[in-house]
Amino acid sequence: MSEGDSVGESVHGKPSVVYRFFTRLGQIYQSWLDKSTPYTAVRWVVTLGLSFVYMIRVYLLQGWYIVTYALGIYHLNLFIAFLSPKVDPSLMEDSDDGPSLPTKQNEEFRPFIRRLPEFKFWHAATKGILVAMACTFFEAFNVPVFWPILVMYFIMLFCITMKRQIKHMIKYRYIPFTHGKRTYKGKEDAGKTFAS
Prior knowledge:
Blueprint: H1 17-36, H2 40-61, H3 65-83, H4 89-92, H5 118-135, H6 147-172
């Protein structure tokens, strides 16, 4: 391999200025993501705020309904992945190759592991809103369409998808939401202490 053949290297073997700039930019972005991880409520409030700003922009511009419909479908897809288990129990039904969700009362408790974790769900949803917002600055994405049809399609798709997901949850007996660690009550300590 000759000098400068690897990605991001200049002719003299040092990383190029552009490569170093984007590497540093990626490091700063990742640092901000890492710092925001424990602030779940704040992250979602910011995302809902961005969503609200996007909806106001679309309302005021009276266009970009296809972009909004695509954003809704994308968010629905993310939400379904968020509600789904990492290992689909319907695929594990016939084989005993690995762990599965408990289906009987006496089986061992196994925590629900999502196919799409909450942080990745938030990150993807926020990026989707920002991309949709960027699309509203380009007239090429403003395809004329009768928007009530799109709203009706989306509502139908949402209802059908959620009905299928809820049936799946009932059939395989899993709940995608947990409320912290389970606590078990033992016997009350009413005993006397023995002095040595």
